[in-house]
Amino acid sequence: MHRIARLFLAVGATTLVVACSQEQKPDENATLAAILPVAQVNLKFQTVEPGKRTGEQIYQAVCKSCHESGALGSPKTGDTAAWAPRIAKGFDALIHSATNGIGQMPPKGGAADLTDAEIARAVAYLANQAGANFTPPPVE
Q: How far apart are the C-alpha atoms of 28 and 30, rounded to whole Å?
């Protein structure tokens, strides 16, 4: 019986030595899955062709950062008291200021790709939030 036990022991040891000496190739998919970050962010950028943006789209992308907070002395969105003297100058005067810059605001609010019609739409949108009744150019 000892011979059978020795035989099983010898076969088992040989199998173990052979199995351990073979090069183990890692599963590439398992490795990739193990090192994935905990969360992933997928960004989708929605671009609108210049000339086709609405006043609200331009406000959200360009104007909001200053006019929502009043940064750099800009009149806050919807602040009728701050906008009243500006609105009184007229739509064309506001468009001129937005196009050429005024105070701390750079020309076109810093968005050089804005068309004249888009600037007019943005001005109408912003001024109308404070009580103006300007008609913006249509989006073609």
A: 5
| Torsion 63-68-69-74 (CA) sign | positive
Tokens of 17: 């030595």
N- to C-terminal Cα distance for the chain?
96
Alpha-carbon span 53 to 75, nearest angstrom: 23
Per-residue pLDDT reduced to its tens digit, 86-114: 999 999 999 999 999 999 999 999 999 99
Q: Which residues contact 102 (CB under 8 A, 6 or more apart)?
A: none
Give the residue-averaged pLDDT of 64-71.
Answer: 93
* Bridge partners (DSSP) listed for residue 105: 102
Contact 66, 96 (CB under 8 A): no
Query: In the prediction, which pLDDT does 46 show?
Result: 62
